[in-house]
Amino acid sequence: AVPSIKIGVQVPITGAYADEGQGIEKAVKLLAEEQNAKGGLIGRKIEVKVCDDEGKASQAAICARQLVDDGVVAVIGSYTSGAALAAEPIYARAKVIQTSDGTSNKLIEKGYNTWFGNAPPNSAEAKFTAHYLVDVRHFKHIAVMTDHSSYATGLAAAVIKNVEADHGDIVDKSYINASAQNFTPILTKLKSMHPDVIYFSGYYSEGGLIRAQMVQLGMKATFVGGDANENVAFAKIAGSAAKGAIIINVPAPQDLPYPAAKRFLASYKAKYRELPPSIYTLTNADGMRAVMQAIEKTHGVKPTKIENYLHHMKEFDGLTGDFTWNRRGERIGTAFTAFEVQGNGSYRIVYPKPKAG
Amino acid sequence: MSLLDIADLRVNYGQIEALKGISLTVSKREIIAILGANGAGKTTLMRTISGLLLPRSGTIHFDGVGITKLGADRIVRRGIAQSPEGRRVFGTLTVLENLRLGGFTRPHGEIAGSLDFVMSMFPRLAERRGQFAGTLSGGEQQMLAIGRALMAKPRLLLLDEPSLGLAPIIVQAIFRSLRQIARTGVTVLLVEQNARMALKLADRGYVLEVGRIVLTGEADTLLGSSEIQTAYLGGERSDGASLLS
Amino acid sequence: MSALLELQGAGISFGGLHAVDDLSFAVEKGHIVALIGPNGAGKTTVFNMITGVYRPTKGKVCFQGQEITGWQPHAIARAGIMRTFQTIRLFPAMSVFENVRAGGHLRAQQYWWQGMLSLPAQRREETALAERTHEILCKLDLDRFANEPATSLPYGVQRRVELARTLAAEPKLVILDEPAAGLNDAESSALNRTIFGIRDSGITVLLVEHDMNVVMNVTDHIVVINFGRKIAEGNAAAIRSNPQVIEAYLGRDENEAENVT
Amino acid sequence: MGTFIQQVFNGLTVGGIYALIALGYTMVYGVMRLINFAHGDLCILGAFIGLTMLTSTAGSGHPGPALLLLAFVVAIVLVAAAGVVLELVAYRPLRKADRLAAVISALGASLLIENGIMLIWGPEVAVFPSGLLPRITWHAAGASISFVQVMIIVASIFLMAALYLFVNHTRFGTAIRAAAIDQDAARLMGINVNRVIAIVFVIGPTLGAVGGLFIGIYYREAYFTMGWTYGLYAFIAAILGGIGNIPGAMLGGVLLGLFNAFAAGYVSSSWQNAITFALLIAILLVRPTGLLGERVAEKV
Amino acid sequence: MDAKLKPLSQSVSIKGDTLFSRRIGLKGARRIAGGLWVLGLFVPALFDNAWISIAAIFAIYGIVALSEDIILGRAGMFDMGHAGYFGIGAYVTAILNVTFGWPIFATIPFAILVSAGVGALLAAPLIRLRGDYLLVATIGFNAIFVLAMRNNLGGITGGSGGITDIGVPFLFGFQLASQSAMFWLDWVVLGIVLVLMRNLDASEFGRTLRYLKQDELASTTLGVDSRMVKTLAFAIGAGLAGLAGTLFAVQISTVSPSSFVFTESVTLFAIVIVGGQGSIPGVLLGTALMFILPQIFRDFAQYRYLIFGFAMIAVMVLRPQGLWPQRSVRA
Ligand SMILES: Nc1ncnc2c1ncn2[C@@H]1O[C@H](COP(=O)(O)OP(=O)(O)OP(=O)(O)O)[C@@H](O)[C@H]1O
Ligand SMILES: Nc1ncnc2c1ncn2[C@@H]1O[C@H](COP(=O)(O)OP(=O)(O)OP(=O)(O)O)[C@@H](O)[C@H]1O
Ligand SMILES: CC(C)C[C@H](N)C(=O)O
Ligand SMILES: [Mg+2]
Ligand SMILES: [Mg+2]
């Protein structure tokens, strides 16, 4: 029989980001199944190998070795930049394609050929964020909060740099510990500084709590969160306090106008009886789709050929919009939006102003 | 009528058989001395009667009722209290709390009276009533252990080497009180190394050897027996324990 | 000749309690000295002060003319004082052999890294240590228990093991806290001979004991304390007839058993 | 000033929760010398059970506080039952063994409960319904304190005091303390040690379930690994106060909460835990058995 | 009189077991252990890369667990922060190699010395603490260490993502890049550590640790300088853990705080107890169970820790002394 094509999934199946990891796993498996139902890829079945990196760098490195030892062609994941970073050199040395939603700029600094970010990098997000905070909303006093992850620290630093370049005033930069729950001490301190806005560059699990505790403490400042706050759990955790919070990211799944995206969401819902937790289920699905397309187009699983194809592909028709990859594996060609969380937990795009109709 | 009736009791520590078929009877108001060399199984016997060890076979009857399989706490409620080897006082509780615990099974109202009795028997305990038992001297702890057992107002009092570590004057006092206590209707089972004193006090005695009863009789007879004389009362030992000389 | 061990006005208090107060006495080299007194008189506390387990709050302790007040226990051991405990303290998960070998700790010269590298000098020393331990076990008639777990043995044997452990350190002074407790008369007579044997091998002995069979028959000198203070001092005959000692400690008659009935 | 007062309340709220959990640690430790590493997970089990009650009764038309009370009762009963079973299965067989064996058994139990929770309730964050309690917030001198916070602080003080009185001023309490020191000797006093231990394993988890549910109500979320984190902090609180000592656990919990608040609020939020731990170590160096721990010298 | 008195000398039973026969037993066990180690050398020839890397990880964690056992199993000090020392070694190697370009082998002495130094420095004041209080203090140390690494202490630890892309060791001009080569390196170091541990147990210092564990007061009155000995035990344990840290950094090629968190210390602690305190084969068996099984049973994904927790309880209840307890007298 012809050997199967092995695709790895390295994501947090357990831990704080379990729902995101499981969403990615589900998306990849769904795509593989659909493809196999069509007779597979270049005549070979796709076999998905999953490894739980728990969202931790250490476990990610172990996963990377395991998946490499399993003989995968490409790996989808991980969700967090930290886990993707730890695995990156291992995949690069083994010539395994890696596509992840990790947006930390560190991921592209090393210039590995095997790296393909399926979400736009932090540098772009930071530029947009600074513009939004300073030029659009005209916030006078900006407080920045971040956790210690590679992604959040990098994003916070980039936002601060861009805000300062735009002549905005950063009143404070504070660190929190991810996995903590009590942020009232730090918020109390910030409250006494009277910021107009608190920008949080970490993940939704803390973002939701921060937002809730701001309201509990009677803080009037606006909450603006980075892309990792986009997850259905944000609004659930923040509860009634979620209303009015702003999140900056590429458009959310429901806001994707493309037919392919609508189809994908429908079959996802049919199969798993729920919607994906965030847009990253779809960006990673795009990663998987791009890899499959490359294998198909190059008629094989030669890493160099696949890399080459992906780097030079013109306008990939993504579920999350058309994009291309530059030489460094950076995703190019997706616009950011700022959206506001509504009372029912849905999002409304507030900037750029949606064109009527 | 016999108060305590033990038949063919066998007790093991893992593979080691510590009691190899012990039978004995104790009548009401008797004072019984149990003698035996180190490791003979005296403590094992006491612990088994109290229910801290489960025998492998054999039976124990107290006042006609089988208590062989009863838990230690239920046995106390039936009227058997023990002052254990090694004293086992509650170190981080005060002397007073220790004594009160001795009366744990008794109605609240009766405790005060017993406290007075014990404190008059051991005035040192009254002086030290607020001190943590763990910081008492060895002898003071021994007094506390005996006093605590008395607090239960038992019908059968088990004393495992009560004279251990006590000054001669206290030992005399304790043995005098034991006689008094026995007169009030308490039966006493006494393990002692101080064989002479124990046999002077006791009505009858048993001699244990490697888990078996090897000798029993009236205390006076035992005191006069040559075996007891040589083995326990200071005669020469055959065993080569005369050392470094 | 000056005393081997000397206490000068030593005292310690716990909270408000003066457990030992202004106590002075001396132990001459080569003697067997007993410290006696009622329960709670402070005897064990005195031992604890001498061996550094407690730090005296008053006075001085001198050993071989050198002040050792407040030294750490291990330093005092190094100076040549070894002790046993009122409640036996053997290493519970070790055999008799291993327990006694532990006494030779101070005799071992090896450094930790020599041990880890198993250098020849270290191995030679190990053999010597094992041989010496066996000698002591034989001397105290413990050789047949050598491989028994120490704490499952009968009480009397455990006491002897503890004694052997102190002797393995080749001390100048051994301090014994109630060595005869739990022994019957026959056994305590045997203990008397052991104590003489220790003295004859050149080691000074200081002991606490309530067993008059031991105290009156082996000691060269007796110190009596009550409430932490010395109330009498002298040889056996003198102490036996001292009214204060009789009243506080011995009771009406030393051969007290007769008086019980 | 307002900021300071606010920080005190911030600390007290969390400290109260730590204290409730720490009391359970200290009780079990006191009697069995066992660090019950599964205690934190039992607490969070309480939170999840309570959550299930709340979501399944939501919309039944009964008033919020009544539903909340029901949730507390059910959580307490089930968690206490789990505690007793745990003792029976994982700890009782090890009573005579090296105490570390029981500690490892407790770690195993912790993993078991934690992952059991994950399998039942899923690995994602579970969110509590809002609006169960009056949304009252008091504002004074620039500080805000909510009804939930007051409830947590008051309840933990009340439960601690009740427990203290029970343990130190009742016969049964003395029995608990006696069993804590020497089980065989306690049995010789007529104390049913098995029952004492079973009751301790009812009291500890009961307080834990209350603490766990408070966490859920206060933060409005629960997830399966949370028990480990809270358990660790509560254990540290118990040690800080002197493990085995009831007011100590309370004091330790509150201090830990305050340290956390002040470290994050006045020094550095990113070094918050380091500062807290450094303070903890410093305190232990000065008082090696905790603030209120027993200091009975070993008598030889 | 119902029986005759027997001579007293029979009142104590004497077991036939002699020191000599025990020695044979011990030697036999050592031969088996040595044989297994030699067999291990053939792992790369017989298994695929997945298994070789599991074997390499086993060797590394085996060393850390053995070093924890010096402190916990032998000296009886509750060290629940051991992953910290392991981490120090790994970070020293990572920083020297990645930031300063040192060859891996040159970093080893520093990894050992820095960990040992921190171990000694911390232990010196902390060993006054007993039992659970020491346990919490060491947890505290571990937490502080992890936080310091997360906070990118001095700008050299790389924050929570840690340091990636650690190089491979060179030996006599050969690059030990393949998984088999790395495995042999780990395996040889494990062998050396095993010999050191065995020697330790047979030396006065090793015994002194056990005296302290069983009765500190009695030990000090026998002349044991407990402070010094305990500090030294911490230093040696920490130093060996640091050595393993180097190997870990090389094997995983990434160091990050999450590898050295308190939970890892708990696992190390558990290995020693599950395997058998003070027992070399026990600790290795414990390592195999606690670190390797979860790796092998990855396919059980969600159930694996549930099963694992259940197994921990079962092992302790059925074998409270550990799977392979130290050969000692049974009390
Ligand atoms: N916990 C135990 N485990 C194993 N063996 C034990 C245990 N306790 C006692 N033994 C053994 O059982 C036998 C009887 O011991 P026991 O303590 O009953 O003797 P005893 O007559 O009270 O001696 P002593 O005069 O020393 O108090 C001894 O051989 C002893 O070694
Ligand atoms: N650590 C301590 N804290 C408080 N009191 C103590 C402490 N140690 C000893 N004591 C008290 O000091 C007194 C002397 O105790 P010590 O143990 O020295 O007596 P002893 O003479 O050895 O008595 P025994 O013959 O009964 O052993 C006792 O009253 C005891 O309660
Ligand atoms: C999926 C995203 C929330 C991940 C985040 N942007 C990161 O790089 O870690
Ligand atoms: Mg006995
Ligand atoms: Mg004494």
Automatic annotation (TrEMBL), chain B:
Q: Which GO terms describe its molecular function?
A: ATP binding
Cite the Gene3D superfamilies for this sequence: P-loop containing nucleotide triphosphate hydrolases
Q: Which SUPFAM superfamilies match?
A: P-loop containing nucleoside triphosphate hydrolases (SSF52540)
Q: Does the keyword Repressor apply?
A: no
Tell me where in this chain the ABC transporter domain is found: 4-235
Going by the UniProt record, its keywords in alphabetical order are: Amino-acid transport, ATP-binding, Nucleotide-binding, Transport
Q: Which SMART domains match?
A: AAA
Source species, domain of life: Bacteria
Task: Name the family.
Answer: Belongs to the ABC transporter superfamily.
- PANTHER family the UniProt entry points to: HIGH-AFFINITY BRANCHED-CHAIN AMINO ACID TRANSPORT ATP-BINDING PROTEIN LIVF
Protein name per Swiss-Prot or TrEMBL: ABC transporter ATP-binding protein
- Species of the source: Acidiphilium iwatense
TrEMBL record, chain C:
Q: What is this protein called?
A: ABC transporter ATP-binding protein
Keywords noted in UniProt? ATP-binding, Nucleotide-binding, Transport
| Signal sequence segment | none
Q: Which SMART domains match?
A: AAA (SM00382)
What the entry lists under SUPFAM superfamilies is as follows: P-loop containing nucleoside triphosphate hydrolases
* Sequence ranges assigned to domain ABC transporter in this UniProt record: 5-252
Organism superkingdom = Bacteria
Q: Name one Pfam family in it.
A: BCA_ABC_TP_C
Citing just one GO molecular function, the answer is: ATP binding
UniProtKB/TrEMBL annotation, chain D:
Where does it primarily localize?
membrane
Membrane topology per record: Multi-pass membrane protein
Keyword terms: Amino-acid transport, Cell inner membrane, Cell membrane, Membrane, Transmembrane, Transmembrane helix, Transport
Say if the entry is tagged with keyword Zinc.
no
Protein's cellular compartments: Cell membrane
What protein family does this chain belong to? Belongs to the binding-protein-dependent transport system permease family. LivHM subfamily.
Q: Which source organism does the UniProt entry give?
A: Acidiphilium iwatense
TM ranges are: 12-30, 42-60, 66-88, 100-121, 141-167, 196-219
- Which CDD domains does the record match to this protein? TM_PBP1_LivH_like
- What this protein is called in its record is Branched-chain amino acid ABC transporter permease
From TrEMBL, chain E:
Q: What is the lineage of its organism?
A: Bacteria, Pseudomonadati, Pseudomonadota, Alphaproteobacteria, Acetobacterales
Q: What topology does the record note for this protein and the membrane?
A: Multi-pass membrane protein
Which InterPro entries does the record cross-reference, listed alphabetically? ABC_transp_permease (IPR001851), LivM-like (IPR043428)
Q: What's one Pfam family the UniProt record gives for this protein?
A: BPD_transp_2
Transmembrane stretches in the record are: 51-71, 83-102, 108-126, 133-150, 170-197, 232-254, 266-293, 305-324
Q: What is this protein called?
A: Branched-chain amino acid ABC transporter permease
Claim: Isomerase is one of the keywords in the record:
no
Q: Give the UniProt subcellular location, in the record's own words.
A: Cell membrane
What start and end residues bound the annotated signal peptide? none
Could you tell me the keywords of this UniProt record?
Cell membrane, Membrane, Transmembrane, Transmembrane helix
